[in-house]
């Protein structure tokens, strides 16, 4: 199982942080969000049970922190049933190899994301020209080479179901990456978005640092297909989520969420597109 596990050659710790780093929020009884530096991981499952799943794998070099967060919620020496990846960017798979080695659990991602997770294809270089923000300027230093999870990475079932997450289904939300997926539970309209759009202006150091809440498109420096990204936002808005967690920024619920999503759909070009794409 553990043959050929490696990160890309450009893998490294990224010294970025926010006021939310190290803070967890119980968004629902069975949905917990925790911020690793600038990115969110989600734990699905009731506390102190063995039936839980980790969604995304944090920043590089954060495995110990993630394991201790998981053990605090679910008990010492516990392990998730699986890890689900919304996509393969470095800030969502940053500690995946250490977590696989520690827990020996399967990892699931969309079929179209597998080349980036099996050492076959690098993500394009991040585009620092998208904005003058410091994070965008720093983005050329972000790891973007393919990682290789060997036989540990599996294609998420094509029927839309998510292993060990009854009631949830996955939704293909390409644009930010080709195989990006989001997770939705109809029953209480809970949406785990990933980076299809986010609630913090990810290009700005100040806004990332303070986590000022503001609906925004997908992080610009990594997004490659803006028309697909727009369609994905429309697809998610049509679900009329009531509770929402994004890969970056704070959760949103209820009226604030509906209004923010409506604005994002109506003004997508203005809110989400890099300035040089507009007009
Ligand atoms: Zn991303
Ligand atoms: Zn991200």
UniProtKB/TrEMBL annotation:
Entry GO MF terms: hydrolase activity
Domain of life: Bacteria
The protein's name: Putative metallo-hydrolase YflN
Hydrolase recorded as keyword: yes
InterPro entries tied to this protein: Metallo-B-lactamas, NDM-1-like, RibonucZ/Hydroxyglut_hydro
CDD domains tied to this protein: yflN-like_MBL-fold (cd07721)
Enzyme Commission code: 3.-.-.-
Phylogenetic classification of the source organism: Bacteria, Bacillati, Bacillota, Bacilli, Bacillales
UniProt keyword annotations, A-Z: Hydrolase
Top EC class of this enzyme: hydrolase
Residue ranges of domain Metallo-beta-lactamase in the record: 38-248
């Amino acid at each position: 199982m553990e043959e050929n596990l490696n990160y890309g050659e450009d893998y490294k710790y990224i010294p970025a942080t926010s006021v939310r780093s190290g803070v967890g929020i119980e968004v629902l009884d069975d949905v917990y969000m925790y911020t690793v530096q600038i990115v969110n991981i989600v734990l699905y499952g009731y506390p102190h049970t063995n039936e839980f799943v980790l969604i995304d794998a944090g920043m590089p070099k954060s495995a110990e922190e993630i394991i201790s967060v998981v053990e605090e919620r679910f008990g010492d020496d516990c392990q998730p049933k699986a890890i689900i990846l919304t996509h393969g960017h470095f800030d969502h798979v940053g500690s995946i190899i250490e977590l696989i080695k520690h827990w020996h659990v399967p990892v699931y991602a969309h079929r179209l994301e597998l080349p980036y997770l099996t050492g076959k294809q690098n993500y394009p270089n991040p585009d620092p020209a998208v904005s003058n923000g410091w994070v965008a300027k720093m983005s050329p230093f972000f790891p973007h080479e393919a990682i290789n999870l060997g036989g540990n990475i599996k294609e998420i079932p094509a029927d839309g179901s998510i292993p060990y997450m009854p009631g949830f289904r996955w939704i293909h939300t390409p644009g930010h990456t080709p195989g990006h997926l989001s997770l939705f539970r109809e029953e209480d309209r809970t949406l785990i978005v990933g980076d299809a759009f986010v609630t913090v202006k990810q290009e700005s150091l100040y806004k990332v640092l303070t986590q000022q809440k503001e609906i925004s498109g997908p992080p610009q420096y990594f997004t490659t297909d803006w028309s697909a990204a727009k369609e994905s936002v429309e697809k998610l808005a049509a679900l009329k989520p009531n509770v929402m967690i994004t890969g970056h920024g704070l959760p949103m619920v209820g009226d604030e969420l509906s209004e923010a999503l409506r604005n994002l759909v109506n003004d997508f070009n203005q809110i989400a597109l890099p300035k040089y794409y507009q007009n």
